[in-house]
Design goal:
The protein is an alpha+beta fold and 141 residues long. It has 3 helices and 5 strands, in the order H-H-E-H-E-E-E-E. Strands 1-3-4-5-2 form a 5-stranded antiparallel β-sheet, with helices on one face. The chain is globular, with a radius of gyration of 15 Å.
């Protein structure tokens, strides 16, 4: 563990027992930059109308941005917290694979800003997402 926090591999393992696992989010290449996550459009992430649930898409994008943020935290950081997010939906899917690519736009001492794009398996955009992460540090002694 670095600075009292889980390694990226430990974080990925911990996520499997929570929302990340419930949604089926996976990371094919943990070393990729930018980080890409995958998820399948299947019944567990669909709204009653048969299309992707907006909340599942937001959770997918926030997760990929969060894991990318975690991977690059400064050594003195203990973690991060999402403090702001927005999503613009420009498409949907009924089935098939989805990918999300997270790109850091700003890396400051106390915040990071991330963009993500969620695409269907044909490469068509489903959502554009932006979030701000607050970098957490242990209180000074």
């Amino acid at each position: 563990m670095t600075a009292g926090r889980a390694s990226f591999t430990e974080l990925e393992a911990l996520g499997r027992d929570g929302l990340v696992g419930l949604l089926g989010i996976e990371f094919p290449d943990l070393a990729a930059d930018p980080l890409v996550g995958t998820m399948r459009a299947e019944p567990r992430v669909m709204a009653p109308n048969g299309f992707l649930h907006g909340g599942a898409v937001v959770a997918f994008a926030d997760t990929v941005c969060g894991y990318a943020c975690w991977r690059g935290l400064p050594d003195d950081a203990t973690g991060f917290a999402t403090v702001d997010l927005s999503a613009s939906f420009v498409g949907t899917a009924r089935d098939g694979g989805l990918s999300c690519t997270a790109t850091r736009l700003h890396a400051g001492r106390s915040t990071e800003v991330w963009d993500a794009r969620v695409d269907d398996e044909a490469g068509r955009a489903i959502a554009h997402f932006r979030c701000t992460q607050m970098i957490l540090r242990a209180p000074a002694r």
